[in-house]
DNA sequence: CTAGGGTTAG
């Protein structure tokens, strides 16, 4: 990892070196004056014949096509230039063939061709994409060997590599070092940092950086805005995203299809279809045609709403507009069928995908999940076994889905067997895998075993999240072990984790069930201060607590408050109210009127 | 010829 980077001026002030302090020691870079001197005669002859030129193109049918070309061009004499190899390598990077590019670089070197800043940056990028950022840094040594000086692109690539590995602090350090080393970051550099901040939930920091960019001599572009708008949309902050959208247009930065995709996705997630369709129209009216991403966003959201036939209709329209559905489209559609329990349709589509050769690991996962959810564990098992015979490798999601299904089908023994096999096949269980097992143990009533597993999770380098806590706190509450539940609840805060609405609902319910209404009420009122707004479930839980303990006045106040906030009573709350307040027409009328115009349970 | 943004599964 880079600790510091600076240009060192000699006493004469004419020659300077760029010095990098790395984990592997100090690397010194000669100045450009030297490198130019050493590399004044590296120009290559370009092969003239048309047949050879054909192989030097940068577009290829597939990986095999590209490799065939490579095998041809390395036989050319004179050899193609490093620039020509760069075009070629870049095409392979586009196909995500990072391993191949690394080994081809070795071949290129062994042919006696010198690297360029471009080719080494491509190489660094490949290591970074393979999560081998330290190997990326070690390539800096090659810059010395070839007498080259890394440039802004090189450093941006490394900063991105650190971001890919979640080392955002290291990325920011390198960014600062790069600046103090005299390398001016450009909009790409800023965008890498902005994107990493957004992806790690630090959208506010990203927005600050966006605002400061201009002063630092680098104006944000459409990519900067897109990254931030996407993060805001994913946090359901559509208004803020739309504000940035108009700010961007005021600066005369034209939105792209990606801008619209981010916004459409955000708006679809809130179920605002009319607004989403309005954006789609606006997009057509502008510099913009929907992409496969647009189609997939629409299809996926419609399917999740259970509107599979609408999704199919949109797909037809899009096909007419020239957007071809891809594996993601079909996966979403398949998931849609699964969600409305049309397993035959899902299976039919899956079979078509398999025979078309496009089914991927996600397709298998969706169908296995569908079978598990519809209690067809034998079908799921069959599919899982079939998968092992194909070239599609099951991943952590596959195993976790199957483990969950087995546990829910009452086969904990088989679930643990699959867990063992996943480890022996080198698939790393993650926090979701362990949470699935934790959930299984809790549902079985093996709370002590669950607690042991949980403690092991905390000790490991897995990041235990709020969901893991929710599962265990819920298990403890249901078993009446409120002391354990409360201890876990406070430990969650100590760990610096943010409880969510589920955590609060669980603990409030637990407290209510034990008759600790005052304490439950305190927690309920404390939610907002902790930045977590109560939802309808929280209201229903606390109201039910008061109703069950015959505290009608408090329940009435809370019902008023809930209705004012636009939430509805659920079936249980309603039953309790009917039972207890048979004569209180006022409150019943209020609940009834509200339930008519909301999604709440249907009452008579 | 090198760096950045959007879609699916647990």
What does this structure look like?
The structure is a single chain. The chain is mainly alpha-helical and 604 residues long. It has a domain at 190-285: Tetratricopeptide repeat domain (Serine Threonine Protein Phosphatase 5, Tetratricopeptide repeat, Alpha Horseshoe), CATH 1.25.40. The protein has 34 helices and 3 strands. It has helices spanning 32-38, 50-55, 63-73, 82-94, 98-110, 117-129, 133-138, 140-145, 152-164, 168-180, 187-199, 203-213, 222-234, 238-250, 257-269, 273-285, 292-304, 308-320, 327-339, 343-355, 361-373, 377-389, 396-408, 412-424, 431-444, 447-459, 466-478, 482-494, 501-513, 517-529, 536-548, 552-564, 571-580, 585-596, and strands at residues 4-9, 16-22, 25-29. It has a 3-stranded antiparallel sheet with strand order 1-2-3. A hairpin with a 2-residue loop joins strand 2 and strand 3. The longest helix has 14 residues, at 431-444. The relative contact order is 0.03. Mean pLDDT is 87; it is low at 1-19, 21-25, 27-48 and 596-604. PPR repeats lie at residues 151-185, 186-220, 221-255, 256-290, 291-325, 326-356, 360-394, 395-429, 430-464, 465-499, 500-534, 535-569. This is Pentacotripeptide-repeat region of PRORP domain-containing protein. It holds the Pfam family PPR_1. It comes from Hevea brasiliensis (Para rubber tree). Belongs to the PPR family. P subfamily.
């Amino acid at each position: 990892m880079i600790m510091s980077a600076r240009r060192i001026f000699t006493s004469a002030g004419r020659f300077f070196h760029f010095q990098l302090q790395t984990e592997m020691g100090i690397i010194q870079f000669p100045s450009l004056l030297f490198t130019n001197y050493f590399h004044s005669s590296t120009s290559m002859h370009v092969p003239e014949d048309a047949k050879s030129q054909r192989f030097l193109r940068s577009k290829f049918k597939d990986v095999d096509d590209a490799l065939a070309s490579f095998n041809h061009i390395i036989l050319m004499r004179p050899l193609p230039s490093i620039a020509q190899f760069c075009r070629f390598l870049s095409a392979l990077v586009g196909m995500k063939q990072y391993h191949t590019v690394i080994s081809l670089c070795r071949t290129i070197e062994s042919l006696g061709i010198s690297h360029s800043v471009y080719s080494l940056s491509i190489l660094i990028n490949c290591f970074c994409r393979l999560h081998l950022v330290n190997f990326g840094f070690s390539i800096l040594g090659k810059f010395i060997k070839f007498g080259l000086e890394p440039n802004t692109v090189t450093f941006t690539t490394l900063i991105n590599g650190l971001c890919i590995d979640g080392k955002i602090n290291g990325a920011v350090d390198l960014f600062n070092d790069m600046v103090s080393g005299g390398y001016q970051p450009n909009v790409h550099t800023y965008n890498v940092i902005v994107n990493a901040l957004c992806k790690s939930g630090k959208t506010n920091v990203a927005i600050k950086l966006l605002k400061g960019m201009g002063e630092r001599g680098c104006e944000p572009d459409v990519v900067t805005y897109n990254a931030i708008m996407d993060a805001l949309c994913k946090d359901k902050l559509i208004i803020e995203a739309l504000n940035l959208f108009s700010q961007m247009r005021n600066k005369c930065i034209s939105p792209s299809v990606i801008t619209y995709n981010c916004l459409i996705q955000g708006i679809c997630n809130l179920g605002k279809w009319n607004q989403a369709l309005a954006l789609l129209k606006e997009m057509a009216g502008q510099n913009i045609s929907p992409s496969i991403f647009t189609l997939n966003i629409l299809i996926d959201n419609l399917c999740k709403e259970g509107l599979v036939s609408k999704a199919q209709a949109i797909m037809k329209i899009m096909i007419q507009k020239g957007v071809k559905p891809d594996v993601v489209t079909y996966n979403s559609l398949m998931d849609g069928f699964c969600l409305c329990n049309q397993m035959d349709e899902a299976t039919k589509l899956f079979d078509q995908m398999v025979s078309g050769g496009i089914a991927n690991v996600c397709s298998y996962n969706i169908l296995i999940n569908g079978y598990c959810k519809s209690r067809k564990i034998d079908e799921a098992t069959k599919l899982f076994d079939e998968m092992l015979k194909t070239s599609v490798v099951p991943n952590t999601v596959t195993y976790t889905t199957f483990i969950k299904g087995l546990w829910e089908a009452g086969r904990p023994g088989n679930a643990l067997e699959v867990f063992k096999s996943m480890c022996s096949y080198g698939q790393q269980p993650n926090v979701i895998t362990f949470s699935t097992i934790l959930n299984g143990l809790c549902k079985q009533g093996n709370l002590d075993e669950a607690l042991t597993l949980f403690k092991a999770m905390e000790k490991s380098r897995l990041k235990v999240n709020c969901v893991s806590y929710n599962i265990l706190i819920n298990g403890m509450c249901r078993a009446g072990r409120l002391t354990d539940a409360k201890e876990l609840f406070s430990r969650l805060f100590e760990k610096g984790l943010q409880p969510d609405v589920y955590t609060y609902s669980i603990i409030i319910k637990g407290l209510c069930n034990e008759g600790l209404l005052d304490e439950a009420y305190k927690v309920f009122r404390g939610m907002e201060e902790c930045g977590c707004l109560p939802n309808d479930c929280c209201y229903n839980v606390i109201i039910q607590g008061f109703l069950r303990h015959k505290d009608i006045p408090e329940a009435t106040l809370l019902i008023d408050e809930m209705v004012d906030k636009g939430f509805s009573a659920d079936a249980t709350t309603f039953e309790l109210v009917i039972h207890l307040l048979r004569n209180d027409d006022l409150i019943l009328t209020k609940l009834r009127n509200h339930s008519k115009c909301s999604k709440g349970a249907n009452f008579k």
